[in-house]
Amino acid sequence: MKLLEERIKADGVVKSDQVLKVDSFLNHQMDIGLFRQMARQWRHDFDGAPINKVLTIEASGIAIAAIVAEEFGVPVVFAKKSQSVNLDGTVYSTRITSFTHKREYDVIVSAKFLGPDDHVLIIDDFMANGCAMEGLVQICEAAGATVEGIGIAVEKGFQPGGDSLRAKGYRVDSLAIVESMDSETGEIAFRE
Amino acid sequence: MKLLEERIKADGVVKSDQVLKVDSFLNHQMDIGLFRQMARQWRHDFDGAPINKVLTIEASGIAIAAIVAEEFGVPVVFAKKSQSVNLDGTVYSTRITSFTHKREYDVIVSAKFLGPDDHVLIIDDFMANGCAMEGLVQICEAAGATVEGIGIAVEKGFQPGGDSLRAKGYRVDSLAIVESMDSETGEIAFRE
């Protein structure tokens, strides 16, 4: 998506050959007008898919997922990273490893909100190793839900998450795929 | 707000005289159409206030805040609950105690995204003791930003958070204030 690639070039900061900061518009301060354009792109790309639920994971995917859910006219569910005293009853859970936070944690979705009737579009802001997305796919499978696709704002194409999910047959629709970054020049190359 | 009160009566579950579950539409599965109506209510209530930023805290306030930000045409910033390797530079931070999670944690906002020019509408899904909101107010004060108001979806009026912030002069606009709940009958009484 040209608009997102241009925004990343304008406002993204290459911190190292591995780390791209987009916190001024994507995942700390958030430009909801941009998210609306992204949501419309996914709405166009998934036209005809019987999506009736959006699934994301706390925290930085939630705002994008909310706008996407409104664009599709369906509810959104976010997987929680820790057991809350208010989350009781049957849950689906899986353990994932975070690249950003360098730790493992359990993520949980209440069984009330995901089931065999659900056709799910999974949404997140970033994909690197894809562990979070693998976790959400596992939760969908445990619930008997159908994964219609995975929409990612920024995929790091030089890390294996996206291509690994594609190889497994999942439809991964990343709006910008960073192929390489140069922390000395600040240059960012996107996959065609 | 009648629409929200009716939804709480229809779909909220009184788990105890203290705990109200609204996870089917507000803070686990989320009804973005409802959030849009709530955002329009705040837009109406704060008409004329020079709001140029929405501030919330991860995780369950983010979706509501995103819709509110779009309604006001301003960016949204969410305070993060743990230091990420991607969050560097100067930050404003404060320590808060969670009623729901029964633990203390630090919340952080990058100094790049909050400053003396900002007129902030703070948004969250729930307020009980108000610790999270007190924390966000402290962060705004540390940044020299002006708090134009605090918009809460559901306030527990029998807990001190909302009235304590009002007594300090903050404009707290809660769309539904639960005055009392009866876990045996499931009855919920709202403040007029």
Q: Care to describe what's here?
A:
- With 192 residues, chain A is of the alpha/beta class.
- The first copy, chain A, has one domain: Rossmann fold, CATH 3.40.50.2020.
- Chain A is built from five helices and eleven strands, in the order H-E-E-E-H-E-H-E-E-E-E-H-E-H-E-E.
- The first copy, chain A, has helices at 2-11, 32-45, 62-72, 131-143, 161-167; strands at 13-14, 20-21, 29-30, 53-57, 76-79, 91-98, 103-110, 119-127, 146-156, 172-181, 188-190.
- In chain A, strand 6 and strand 7 form a beta hairpin.
- The mean pLDDT of chain A is 94.
- Chain A binds chain B through residues 15, 19, 21, 23-25, 28-33, 35-36, 58-59, 62-63, 65-67, 69-70, 73, 75-78, 80-82, 84-88, 100-102, 109-110, 112-113, and chain B through 15, 19, 21, 23-25, 28-33, 35-36, 58-59, 62-63, 65-67, 69-70, 73, 75-78, 80-82, 84-88, 100-102, 109-110, 112-113.
Compile the SSE list and pairings.
Two copies of one chain form a homodimer.
Chain A: H1 2-11, E1 13-14, E2 20-21, E3 29-30, H2 32-45, E4 53-57, H3 62-72, E5 76-79, E6 91-98, E7 103-110, E8 119-127, H4 131-143, E9 146-156, H5 161-167, E10 172-181, E11 188-190
Parallel strand pairs in A: 4-5, 4-8, 8-9, 9-10
Antiparallel strand pairs in A: 1-2, 6-7, 10-11
List keywords for this structure.
192 residues; Rossmann fold; homodimer; 5 helices; alpha/beta; six-stranded mixed sheet; globular
Instruction: Please identify the oligomeric state.
Output: homodimer
Distance between the termini of chain A: 10 Å
Q: Which chains make the largest contact?
A: A-B, 43 and 43 residues
The domain count of chain A comes to 1
The total beta strand count of chain A reads 11
User: What is the fold-level CATH name, i.e. the topology of chain A?
Assistant: Rossmann fold
As a percent range, the share of strand residues of chain A is 25-35%
Taking the sheet with the most strands of chain A, its summary is: 6 strands, mixed
* Sheet with the most strands: spatial strand order of chain A: 5-4-8-9-10-11
* Corresponding CATH architecture of chain A: 3-Layer(aba) Sandwich
Estimated radius of gyration of chain A: 16 Å
Mean pLDDT of chain A: 94
Q: What is the string of helix and strand elements of chain A? A: HEEEHEHEEEEHEHEE
Low-confidence spans of chain A? none
Estimate percent helicity of chain A. 25-40%
